[in-house]
Amino acid sequence: MAIFDHFDFLAPIYETFIPARGPDALVALAGLPVHGALLDAGGGTGRVAQFLRDKAGNVIVADLSRKMLAEASQKEGLRLVNSHTEGLPFSDGAFERIIMIDALHHVIDQRHTLTELWRVLAPGGRLVVEEPDLRTFGVKLLALAEKLALMRSHFLAPTQIAALLDFPDARVRIEASSFNAWVVADKAAGRL
Length: 192
Prior knowledge:
Strand order of the largest sheet: 3-2-1-4-5-7-6
Oligomer: single chain
CATH superfamily: Vaccinia Virus protein VP39
CATH class: Alpha Beta
Order of helices and strands: HHHEEHEEHEHHEE
CATH topology: Rossmann fold
Helix content: 25-40%
Distance between the termini: 38 Å
């Protein structure tokens, strides 16, 4: 079963098991609101993006699973794009903010995904990658469970994610809580 097939199956019940939560921490980390566009890469059902509609000029959810996007279509104010994160159909520098919440461990090529996200991030923009923190015991169990479910997930520690953002125009920092970690990368202004 391919990765996106799992999500096609889970789409109708996804938010029952992984409910939407208030975006206060994410709003602060992403430096919202902004006037430009925001991309929720791997945004699935729009469970996070739905809270950011009034925080950016345009909110776009890109996901590979059509069934996850069908669920997102029930939320007003989101633009939906069916796409791999490794090959986004957007021009260079199209987004002032990009978020990727709990999705990097599901992509096929993490380095290529982050390179692609960096390409579509505008100069002066910010990328926030939120992932379960592999340094914690609970996340190690989650990673094992996803492997047993044949999801082909590949979890990275926050420092490994930060190392993949080794672009010359990137300023990267890591924030962590008890379960999640955020890798925040600011793109220097004036470079596209």
